[in-house]
Amino acid sequence: MSWFYLAIAVVFEIAFALGTNATKGFTRLWPSVFTLLAAAGGIFTLSLALKGLDVGVGYTIWTGIGSIGTVLLGALIYKEKLTGGKIVSFLAIIGGVILLRVAA
C-alpha cells in the first residue's frame, strides 16, 4: 500500500508545482485554492506512504518523479523548453529512482 500512496502523492506533487505557476504569485483565487489543496493532499499521502517506507527513499522518489512530471507537463502545458541537458538529467533521476525502488 505504501507504494500506492506514494504514487498518489507524486500526482499531487506535480499538480501542486504546476498549480503554483498558474497562481501568478497567489493573486488568482481558484488556482491558489487548487494549489493549496494539492500541496495538502501530497503531504498527507506522502505521510501515509512513509508508514511503510524509509523517509529517505519515499521523499527522494516523491520529489524525483514529481520533478520529472512537472518538467514534462510544464513543457506541454506552459510550452517550456526541453533541452538535451534536461533529458539527460531526467534519465539520471529515473535511474536513481529505479535503484532506490530495488534497494527498498
UniProtKB/TrEMBL annotation:
- Entry's transmembrane regions: 29-50, 57-78, 84-103
* Record bears the keyword Ion transport: no
Write out the GO MF terms: transmembrane transporter activity
**UniProt keyword list:** Cell membrane, Membrane, Transmembrane, Transmembrane helix, Transport
Question: Per its UniProt record, what PANTHER family does this chain match?
Answer: GUANIDINIUM EXPORTER (PTHR30561:SF0), SMR FAMILY PROTON-DEPENDENT DRUG EFFLUX TRANSPORTER SUGE (PTHR30561)
Q: Identify one Gene Ontology CC term for this UniProt entry.
A: plasma membrane
Annotated protein name in UniProt: Transporter
Instruction: Answer whether the UniProt record assigns the keyword Transmembrane helix to this protein.
Output: yes
